[in-house]
Amino acid sequence: MLRFFSNKTTHPLADAREAKRILAEIAGREPQSAVEDATAWLESLAAEESFKLAQRLELIFKLDEAAVAQARRLGRDYACMGGARRGPESRQWQVGMDYWRQLAAAYLDCITRYGAAKKDGDAVRPQLPLLYGRLINALAAKLKWKQFRYGAVGPGFWKTLGDIYLAAVEANVAKAPLWLYVGTTETMIEVEAEYLKVLIFQATSMDKLQPLQMEIAERFIAYFLPYFSLIRELRKENVYWVDAAKPLPPTRLAKVPEITPTLRFFDGTRALEAVGKTIEQIRSEGRVPPGINLGAQYDVRTVIPVLEHLALCWAPKPPMRSNVRRRIKSTLKVVNGLIAVHERLSGRSSGQEGVETWVVEDVSLGGFGAQVPVSRNDWICIGALVGMQPEGGENWLIGIVRRYVRTGPNKGSVGIETLSKTPRAVFADANGLWTEALLLDIPECGEYARMALAADALEEKVALAFAIDDKNARLHPRETIATGEDFVVANFFVQSFS
Q: What does pTM read for this prediction?
């Protein structure tokens, strides 16, 4: 396995028997520990200059293969926890991000050394397709972990990614089929296809998805990838373009860009039809078809919204805003979470503790766009319930964060859907159990009204009874409208209000 090693280095991985033991140990550990170990060994290789290029690359390949299953599992576990930003979960994010960053840097270093090599380069040349493919795969994972925290992706990322793709094109290996990881359930793929997957991932508006939805979306992108192709020609069906030589992400084709040899186009027209058929099949069968590998079993209610999001992003025409936005500059007082909002509306809390100030940049009938401060213990995420008090006002609004992206180390940009402009805090009796709830609509007997409450407080066929404005109300739960970490919004039938 490690046939290239000489006796000129004392690095532990230079000994074939010790290297085999270390790799087996990594492969057998639980995800976070395995990824931490692999990162440490990659760092040690970067600091060791005694290895020849072929030796170095083979070791990186072996470390990558030993850790890949655990690294992917770590990402799935983090996403399933909702991308929490505190305690062990925050540490988990850092471990995952550090690993893919270090792996990408190790492969980039090998490419740099290959460009400067003379004799050593000959031994590595047959490995170029795998090197380019593994590097793009590592960059893709790095992008996903960045998106888990809604981090801004700088131009350097797109320049590096494009340069690797163009190097593969120049070496005439971009379309050479290869097994990225032997022994996995993956099929053969091309370097160009790996590059295209990253472009599609970016074009799929991950800033509107929760971490688990991102994880599922990435799996669906791989599944629907055969319906996409990267082409040089400008055609009427093209939806996105990218210039691989420029530090730019893929962009919707609003106007024809400057024509260059490195310009590429892709569209999701064929994929859109396949997504529609998949949605129909899942709804009909009540399950995800066995041929679709999502890495885990997910409820249909979790999967369908992701597919619907893909369909919107891949459609020939971008989703249109339902309401016109007006540019403004004002401030909002903001509190986070169902309990905090309830305390404000019920008058149990009136101080400034837990209150943030956001700067509103645009407003419409449906919501706000705002610039927000990002603290070290950032709580902002897609689906977060917030209470908002406009500048100079006494009333509180309730909304849900629907879009979020970090625009700098200490700031971000959010899009908020307004749920209610006249919310009321109530204490409801749920068959003898008292629960805090937010009434989002004015009740009318015989009609429906929305309420937000803790998810574990919503029970089918259990009515909520409460007093408000000297009237007694009794509401019966119907369908769920939205869910979050600490709340659920549901429709209720108003049985009585008098």
A: 0.84
